[in-house]
Design goal:
Layout (H helix, E strand, L loop, with lengths): L3 E5 L3 E2 L10 E2 L14 E5 L8 E6 L4 E7 L2 E6 L4 E6 L4 E5 L4 E5 L6 E6 L8 E2 L2 H14 L1
Antiparallel strand pairs: 1-9, 2-3, 4-11, 5-10, 5-12, 6-9, 6-11, 7-8, 7-10
The structure holds thymidine-5'-diphosphate.
Thymidine-5'-diphosphate (TYD) binds next to strand 4 and strand 5.
């Protein structure tokens, strides 16, 4: 799907010299693991059951969404494509580029959705009206 893809990060399982498991470590380096310079990080926590968030697209912003704990489902769509991703692996990120409509739901109890963003927060950058989104996205993807 255009402007959407899964990124795979390192999943380091370091047992040192012992055989005992010591957990997982995932490093994320701006410009290396993420295809942009990270200017902002935010996270969604304590999302109640049966909550759907999102319902918007961004004009230019690029983001990588990582479920660093638990599980969440993310639907992404453009006027001509739609995909659903279940994120439940801290070593995978969902890259979402410009002009992609997103909805996030089915947050498990204790889920943490961490988001890395290419720009500082600007409300004017959001498109929150679906009809406006559809019109702008049709033009945007026609030109691509
Ligand atoms: P929003 O991006 O709409 O959340 P979601 O897509 O998860 O439903 O943001 C919710 C509110 O938080 C909105 O009032 C804007 C504010 N906000 C900031 O002030 N700074 C930020 O970096 C973000 C992402 C949101």
């Amino acid at each position: 799907m255009r402007n959407v893809r899964i990124l795979e990060f390192k999943d380091i399982i370091d047992t040192r010299n012992s055989e005992r498991p010591m957990g997982h470590l995932t490093p994320i380096e701006s410009g290396i693991d993420i295809p942009f310079d990270i200017k902002r990080v935010y996270y969604l926590t304590r999302v109640p059951e049966n909550t759907t968030r999102g319902f918007h697209a961004h004009r230019k912003l690029q983001q990588v969404l990582i479920c660093t704990n638990g599980k969440v489902t993310i639907d992404v769509s453009t006027p001509s494509e739609k995909k659903s991703f279940v994120l439940d692996d801290p070593a995978k990120g969902l890259y979402v580029g410009p002009m992609v409509w997103r909805e996030m739901y089915d947050f498990s109890a204790g889920a943490v959705l961490t988001v890395l963003a290419s720009e500082h927060y600007q409300e004017e950058e959001y498109i929150r009206d679906y009809e406006e989104y559809r019109r702008l996205a049709q033009e945007y993807f026609k030109e691509k």
